[in-house]
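Notes to self after the Tuesday call (sharing in case useful).
The group wants a holo model before anyone commits to mutagenesis around the pocket. I volunteered. Ligand is T3D. Logging inputs and output together so the record is complete.
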Amino acid sequence: MSYKTLLFDLSDNVAMISFNRPDRLNALSIELLRELAAALEAVARSDARALLLTGEGRAFCAGADLLEVQAQWPMDLKHLLNTYYLPPIQALAELKIPVVTAINGLAAGAGLSFALSADIVLAAQSSYLMLAFANIGLVPDAGATWFVAKAVGRMKALEMALTGDKVPAQKAEQIGLITRAVDDEALMDEARSLARKLAERPTVALGLIRQQFRTGLTGTLEETFAAEAENQGVAGATADFAEAVAAFGEKRPPIFKGK
Ligand code: T3D
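Result:
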């Protein structure tokens, strides 16, 4: 499938999706959200063992396309969210492969939700993150409330949500909002090499780990014990676990096939 608002690449078991509306700072139009949902379905069906998400130009994503909202005024935002935002954000959450985000510039509003839905978030030193919603009279959406509060705690999350202030990458790293701030010139190389490294690891276990942390963050200790045991049953039956055990005995590095 070809896309108008995204770049899509799949090579060496690494899928890469790049928001591609640089003249609008990669703002989320309905067309982009539809294409993103389709691209994520394609990733889920493919042999990709890691996904890298980034943006073209000077922004990662400036959130909802406000010019489109204006052109279609008045819009039912609840309907818009449920129909167009939820499918791709849920698809990202449910992917069975690790997801890396490279925040190449500003990430605002729902754009920040997409960025933080990843498991590992790298950001260029010059980039900034922004819960821009309240600046235009809205509330955080597309999971931003959960993603931000789970990452930095209620106090810092509320400060970001209520003030709508820009958080520079360096500070975002300090408060645990992102994994790491990286030199601008090094960002894409580092993100690609991280995604490639993850794609060579035991994919089934990695997919289970990302789900298991969600359970761990929202469930009780007992629910976490149960999820861990369930998932370990699955991981323990994979060819990759058998390969790792054999490789250990043979004193050689394992070669994981993602099965
Ligand atoms: O729709 C729903 O269902 C509701 C869901 C809402 C979820 C949300 O995401 S709410 C948050 C929406 N986003 C924002 O409020 C951010 C709006 N943008 C800005 O405040 C500023 O653009 C930035 C602070 C992000 C960046 O400022 P700056 O000075 O670096 O760039 P700029 O000049 O403002 O923008 C450059 C161009 O991108 C400009 O176009 P032009 O004039 O050169 O033709 C601007 O209109 C366009 N642009 C930037 N953000 C958006 C946008 N176009 C459409 N939608 C945008 N969000």
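Two things stood out.
Residues 203-249 form one domain.
The pocket of T3D is lined by residues 24-25, 27, 62-67, 69, 77, 80-81, 106, 108-110, 132-133, 135-136, 138, 141 (CB under 6 Å).
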